[in-house]
Structure formats: structure tokens, C-alpha cells
Design goal:
Helix content is 43%, strand content 17%. With 70 residues, the protein is an alpha+beta fold. The strands form 2 sheets. It has a two-stranded antiparallel sheet with strand order 1-4.
Length: 70
């Protein structure tokens, strides 16, 4: 399974939550730069939403950019 698909599957399994790149990285096992590129590409796909500011559902840290499934 490609990284893009792993990230999408993780987010779909956690529908309703908002996740930062660092927490997504911990779930899918890749480097942060690759995760950031893939999450940025998911923002353009139907069903995914970028949250500009908020609290990550996993680490509970305030982040400037989060991704979630609509």
C-alpha cells in the first residue's frame, strides 16, 4: 500500500477527528516531509478537509494545520 493510501485509510478509520502531520506520521511510518506532501495532496480530494487551526485529536496539541475526513 502506498503512503497516500495509508494516510487516507488512517483518516477514514478516525472519521470526525482532526490530525496533525506528526501524529499521522506515527501511524503510517514515513518521514515528515513525505507525510506533509501527501496530506497536502489529500486536501484536494473529495471527503478530506484541511483545518487551518485547531487541536489535534491524538496529541491534543494546538496546530496551525490539521487534516480530517468530512
Amino acid at each position: 500500500m502506498e503512503l497516500h493510501d495509508k494516510i487516507a485509510a488512517f483518516l477514514r478509520s478516525k472519521k470526525g477527528g482532526r490530525y496533525c502531520d506528526a501524529c499521522i506520521l506515527n501511524e503510517v511510518g514515513a518521514d515528515l516531509e513525505k507525510v506533509h506532501k501527501q496530506t497536502a495532496s489529500l486536501e484536494n480530494e473529495s471527503g478530506f478537509l484541511s483545518v487551518k487551526r485547531g487541536i489535534c485529536s491524538q496529541c491534543h496539541a494546538s496546530k496551525d494545520r490539521l487534516l480530517r475526513v468530512q
